[in-house]
Design goal:
The protein is mostly helical and 108 residues long. The chain contains four helices and two strands; from the N terminus they run αααββα. A hairpin with a 5-residue loop joins strand 1 and strand 2. The termini are far apart.
């Protein structure tokens, strides 16, 4: 699967989320809640189930599929059936880097 659109980190971060365990409205808010949980829980943080769900990373991938940013399929029941995980991971990693770059530029 290689059908992806070129999305900026800002576009990825603004991507709306479907119902999710973090109760986040956008991908960016989801990532901020994830970081906040790491900070709050520290050594007790559960990276496998940060919001009580072992499939938490697929909540992000699903949002990218629903927004048409990566190739994938949602069935008639609204379940993610397939996705271009490699492209999704790349977009999320670039969005995280974009958050860092925006913060760094704001510090200048």
């Amino acid at each position: 699967m290689t059908d992806t659109i070129n999305a900026t980190p800002a576009q990825v971060l603004a991507t709306p989320m479907q119902s999710n365990d973090a109760e986040a409205a956008t991908v960016g808010e989801y990532l901020i809640k994830l970081l906040a949980d790491v900070w709050r829980e520290q050594e007790c943080f559960n990276g496998k189930r940060p919001f009580g769900n072992s499939g938490w990373d697929y909540e992000l991938i699903e949002a990218l599929v629903r927004a048409g940013l990566i190739d994938g399929e949602i069935d008639e029941d609204g379940t993610l059936m397939r996705s271009d995980d490699e492209a999704g991971s790349r977009l999320i990693a670039e969005a995280i880097q974009g958050m860092s770059a925006a913060w760094t530029e704001g510090k200048r």
